[in-house]
Each structure stands twice: as structure tokens, then as C-alpha cells.
Amino acid sequence: MAISLIAAAVTPGKAKKQLAEAQQEHKSVCFETNFTDADLLLQTLQEHGLHVMVEGDCFVTQFDDARIVYRRQSEDGPFVMDIGEVGDVQCLINELDTIEKEYNGNVQTYTYQRLMKNLPDGMVVENEQMMDDNSILLTLTVG
Question: What is the rounded distance in angstroms from the CA atom of residue 79 to the CA atom of residue 73?
């Protein structure tokens, strides 16, 4: 099982254990994420079908299996998740993994559109290929 959204210092097994303890003890747990762009995080959560309340610099959302507050510890740092009201741990992990993938897809789309829109003069896309991992390989020529 892979939980890429949880910082490298926290293994998937440890994360699952912490979430299970939070569930049993009715407390919250905090994990660092890879989410760095507030607009793309908000877009991803909304596209995922979640109602998001914006409270200052925080995003608050209620999953079926948890209440999550996304907040930054520093202005330019990644978001952390404060997870409380934990229900089914495995369902929550699956949901968070899906959101991570959707966020990464939104980052890729944003980056691609920005690159295509801002190609320098004389630079042309010679070839564009979608890879098996859904990444895009662009071959550019300078004329």
C-alpha cells in the first residue's frame, strides 16, 4: 500500500497506525502533504466533490471518514493535514491517495498549459507523447 501524500519520514504502516490510534482515542493527527499550490488544492478538493469551507488560509472539509483541515505551517511551505473525526481508516487512506493523484494531475495540466502558452519565440513543439505513467514527453525545436 502506498500513501505518497504522507511525508517520507512517515511510513504507510506508521500512518495507518497513527490514524487507527486517532480513531480509537477520538483525537486528531497531523501529516505533511505534497500540496504546495493553494488554488490547485482547492480546485482538486472541489472537483473531487467535497464541500470546502475557506477559513483564512485554511481549507476545511468533511470526508465520509474524517474531518480534515488543510493549513500551512509557513507561507511558502507545503500544506499539512489535521485529520480528526476518523472513521474507516482504510477508506480514508484510499480517499486521500485518490486526491493526491488528482492533485498531481491538476499540477501537470496547469504546468503543461502554462508551458504551451509561454513558449519562447522560435520554439516549436515537434512531438508530444503521452507516456504509460500519464506524464507527457514534449520534444521542442528551436528555430
Answer: 7
| pTM score over 0.70 | yes
> Tens of pLDDT along 88-115?
998 998 899 999 999 999 999 999 899 8
In DSSP terms, 111 is beta-bridged to none
Cα–Cα distances in Å, from 113 out to 39, 49, 83, 118?
Answer: 15, 24, 33, 9
Cα→Cα distances 18→14, 25, 27, 92, Å: 6, 10, 10, 13
Q: Are residues 134 and 119 in contact, defined by beta-carbon separation less than 8 angstroms?
A: no
Check: CB of residue 63 under 8 Å from CB of residue 50. Answer: yes
